[in-house]
Amino acid sequence: MTDNTAWQLEDFVDSLVVELDKTRETLAVKAVNKPLSYTVKELALDLNTFPSYDGEQIRFLTAQPGQEGASKVTISLNSITDQQVRATTKLPRGTTDVTIDQIDVDQETRKKLRKLGVSSVDDLEQLQERDVDLGQVSGNDIDYTMLAKKIQKSRRNQSPPTIGAVSLSVADDDGPCLLIEGRHLGVDPAFQPVAVVNEVLADVLATSDRELLIQLAPGNALRADNDVVVAFDQYAVVKVNVRT
Amino acid sequence: MDEAFIPLHALVLAMLPAIDEYVDDEAGVRAYITRYHIESPIELDVTTDAEGAQRIGTTPPLYYVDTSLRPSYHQMRFTVERGAGDD
Predict the structure, then answer these.
(1) pLDDT tens readout for residues B15-53
(2) What residue of B is the nearest CA neighbor of A62?
(3) For residues B44 and B26, is the Cβ–Cβ distance under 8 A?
(4) Is the domain of A81 the same as that of A133?
(5) Which of chain A's ends, N or C, has fewer CB atoms near its CB within 10 Å?
(6) Helix (H) and strand (E) counts for chain B?
(7) Chain B interface test: which of A8, A17, A19, A24 (most B C-beta within 10 Å)
């Protein structure tokens, strides 16, 4: 017998499902040339194992010849209809979804979220939409204000502001203005962007995803070399050098 | 996987009878099996391959004599039924 290594239940069940699929596929092929077709309705294993817990995960070691005192683990796979699959399977993550591994939180918080079945930001938001009080379930161990900020930061990191062009315009009433064009600029409607031109605070007249209009302060005309710092939101601060 | 063991799906398929339908033309009788339910002790060899996936090796009991070092017999049950669309 080869090396007997400890396994996790999740991995074992995955392999068992693969074995069941292979059985079904073979029976399906056989049905092409046979008058009758058969399908596997149930597959169950009673396993003699020695479970161990390392503080984070439970692993199982398959009992070997001569070993006594093993625990019994029963795994049953039943057939499932396509309707049940649709009802119980989560859709694959969208491209904009952020997994909790991508959020800058400590390992303990990540572990607690995983135990609550939360594996992505979308999961968290769905719970919020349904008004689920996660604080009660987790024993108020998780700082959700901090978590919400980390999520926003992580989301922002996925779509950072990019500046394509900066131009000077002179509006009738507003005087000289800097027009910044790009993508993902003013994405947080709750945050009014802040701009500083040559270390002088400037007014932001208009903001959108693709444009930001900054009114230069009176007496702060552009020089040959200008430093423009814009905080689009609390997680996106950009510094650009504008030469005239 | 130990060479005495085979993948679980191969064992399940090997346990199914090769003949599904029994036809007696003279008597004009046709019989078929609608459902198999098989329960058997098996020996198990669970190994991890290079990709980290578990490989489940199985075999029916290899020896039929009582020995001082007894194998660990796990139990397997499965049910196979005739397809819903068959006559």
Answers:
(1) 887 777 788 899 899 888 888 899 999 999 888 888 777
(2) B46
(3) no
(4) no
(5) C
(6) 1, 6
(7) A19
